[in-house]
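Run log, item B.
One chain of 565 residues. Sequence copied directly from the ordering sheet:
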Amino acid sequence: MEQHQCSDRSCAIALGACAAAGHLRGGIQIHDKIQSEIHGTRVLVLNALISMYVRCGKLDEALRVFADMPHRNVVSWTSMIAAVAQTGHYSFSVKLFDGMIAEGINPNEKTYASVVSAIAHLGRDAILDRGRKIHSQITASGIDADPIVQNSLINMYARSGLLAEAREVFDSILENSKTVVSFTTMISAYAHNGHPRQALEIFREMTARGVAPNEITFATVLAACVAIGDLASGAWIHERMIESGLDSSDPFAYNSLVDMYAKCGDLGFAARVFETMKTKDLVAWTTIIAANVQSGNNRAALDLYDRMLQSGIHPDIATLSTLLVACANLGDLAMGEKIHRQALRSKLEQDAHFQNALAAMYAKCGSLEKATRLYRRCRGSDVATWTSMLAAHSQQGLASVALELYAEMESEGVRPNEVTFIPVLISCSQAGLVAEGREFFHSITSDYGSQPSAEHFGCMVDVLGRAGKLRDAEELLDSMPFYPDEIAWQSLLSSCKLHTDAEIGTRAAECLLELDPESTSQFVALSQIYAAAGRNSDIDEIKRELALRRQIEVHRTTGELANWE
């Protein structure tokens, strides 16, 4: 009888080749060939079969082969534990590990690294309980010096914010055994847990020890620079990138570099780095567009978008949402509608974040009907969108509609922030709703635990002042926990002009003069108040004061010109 069976080694090699190439069909053919012997003792072949199915994305088939195996060794268990964890089934991965222990199979370094990685995704409680127990098992087994295991432990502790434990594991690694992965994992642990300076310290130690960073290291430590606005360190890291030979063809690291320069206040250099990039992917374009929007260069951001389209790169939700912010800032309704149409063509318009940005854009561009229709359709509107809607209606003088929206926002369970109260108080001022204005003002502290800002006080002064409660407005300014700014005093002076109150108006003008001795606007307003009150002698005094100021200014300017000549 002719034998067509391949040896275990040949089958394993063939399955490995199929796995590497993602050639599922070829792997299935080999599986069919050995199917009759699936209950044999060919663990090597079955492990290769599991690996092939896993790498070809067929986890169910891999589990079926695993379940039918009469004998499983450490490779079998480890392959399944790792595969299940990699597909996001972290709890099941840990259960498989428990099953392995129950069968009396001793884990190896790869097993421990896989199960520790799975536990890292199960939350702080799981890390404190199972994570620490498995760490003890690792130590008892004598493989706690393995770098793969150590890096997994650092990452596990870091994900739950247990930085002392992560650092302890890092420090336990022998100096000559610390790899780029070890350093990068520790840098990431600090950077992602709010300790950017420590992340920079580890990076400096890494370079001092001659360990070459990779693109992930650079991207992570650049994010740490952003967190503290450290442009100098970011520029130094840029030099290290060049020294390492990492050129601008690597978009991952260079996107982070563009982001760092932009967010640390050097948009010009961010643009220079962007223009030198050999490979500009979607992330690169979106990063530089966002950088320009954040810096207030909204028109430049829209120009970059046109360039991006011409280069053949299509936008995603992040790009379009950022562009909508630029349109809103510019009040460019036509461009905003163009981006809306682009989203419709790309079938991206259902994204909640995009709909929020779209509603805010229409609101800020004055298209309230479209904005209202959009935000009512998107019931997941966040506080930023609600605030934009409130502000838009307030700016259009629709105070009653704005206050109705605020009540609707609260009924939806959306918690207002400090910015939300500004259009609400402006609406109260427009509608003359003093009692409601007081209630909203006090609720900032009583209901939401925040302290009113100078802008809140200024809005409340306007509420009281417009309603003619000038003394109350002045008392509110005097009670502020910080010195009132020019806007607050100017608001009170304007209200004094509206209600012809020369006494309080004079005090407001004097306070404005202290804040800005060079300004004359307060004298103009005050003269109008005096004229309405029939206080002609006071008007004459103001005229003399203004004439004196003009004379002083002429002499000062003439002197400066003489010195310049």
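Observations after the first pass:
- The mean pLDDT is 85.
- The radius of gyration is 34 Å.
Flagged for discussion on Thursday.
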